[in-house]
Amino acid sequence: MVLEGAQQVIGLIALYCSVLFPIKVWYAPDQPLLVDMKPEAAITLMASDFTGQPIETKAPVEFDAPRQVDLKSIFPQFSTPGTYLVYAVPKGKSMGDFVGTPLVVGVRDDKRRGAPAGAMVTRVEPLRYAVIHTEPGPVTVGFYYDVAPNTTDTFLSLASQGYFDGLTFHRIVPNFVIQGGDPRGDGTGGPGYQIDAEFNARPHLEGVLSMARSGDPAEPAAMPRSEFANSAGSQFFICLDYANTRQLDRRYTAFGRVTSGIEAVKKIGQTPIADPRTGRPRDVQKIVKVEVKPVRPGENPYSTLQSQLRDVEAAK
Taking burial as the number of CB atoms within 10 A of a residue's CB, which of 79, 96, 174, 178 is the most buried? Predict the structure, then answer.
């Protein structure tokens, strides 16, 4: 699965990154982050952290011809664990006026107990989002590459392969969540593997995507034990009302948020229920398909996602 995912990412880079082309997906900490640049006109490389805060360079870096560059030589902060976005920006323009597809640079540390500090590996990939097509309308989603990179990668990989197409939102709990992604359609199915939890501090606000998992009988008095925490597969849910979903914070993996189309989510959440015990809706609520798309000029849900993240921080 990992190899398949890397091949898909490389394919996306070739298809969609009209300016920035990483030479590979994974880089060791002592390797340069080499990127081929193919500008059609003079550009400036700019970068930000995942929330959109600009990362400064020693001096503006401008290019007007194809060449290969080491991103770490331009942005020294890329040697420090974190999640960064890189943009090719026409000369004299601001970061929001980028061309091509931005890159996500995920500098990952080793989170195992007693592991050495610093970067362990870096992943470079095109910035992508998803459109969940439903009968009430499309739902656009941006992903938390920074706090849930493995969950994000799993969802994007499954979606790119058509896994979710034709499945249903099999569980609807009014004013709580709508849940889908089960090939069996009864809450018991998955992709045949499980992924580790990436519990994080992102609150389960309206429109947040999070991973369903097996419940631990010891909850809510205690945190879920590892066999329950690490039991997610493909089933995900979208939150409806934070007054009711607040209890999920730090116990489920929040991995993205709706940036447009929340009215379609709410409409599904208002579906009459046939079985209150299971949340089975009276009428089938189909996931028509999930479309994975690269961020491009004029198609950037992350400007909204970053605004949402800043609002959350400001409200603390």
Answer: 178
**pLDDT by residue (tens digit) across 98-143?**
999 999 999 999 988 888 898 899 999 999 999 999 999 999 999 9
Look at the alpha carbons of 131, 133, 139, 145 in this order and tell me if their dihedral is positive or negative: negative
Spatial separation of the C-alpha atoms in residues 201 and 228, rounded to whole Å: 19
The pLDDT value recorded for residue 8 is 53
Cross-strand partners of 49: 84
**Alpha-carbon dihedral of residues 143, 231, 219, 266, nearest 10 degrees?**
40
**Residue 96 CB neighbour total at 10 angstroms:** 12
Tens of pLDDT, residue by residue over 16-59, are: 547 999 999 999 999 999 999 999 889 999 999 999 999 988 76
Dig out the tokens for 249 from the structure: 């914070």
For residue 195, the 8-state DSSP code is B
Residue 89 β-bridge partners: 44
Bridge partners, 180 (sequence order): 236
User: 178 pairs with which residues across the strands?
Assistant: 172, 238
How far is Cα 101 from Cα 224, in angstroms, rounded to an integer?
Answer: 39
- Indicate if the pLDDT at residue 74 is higher than 90: yes
Q: Where are the alpha helices (DSSP H) in the chain?
A: 2-16, 71-74, 149-160, 226-229, 242-245, 262-269, 302-315
Which amino acid makes up residue 177?
Answer: V
Give the tokens for residue 85.
């976005």
Quick one: CA dihedral 3, 11, 31, 302, positive or negative? negative
Six token digits for residue 39: 């500008």
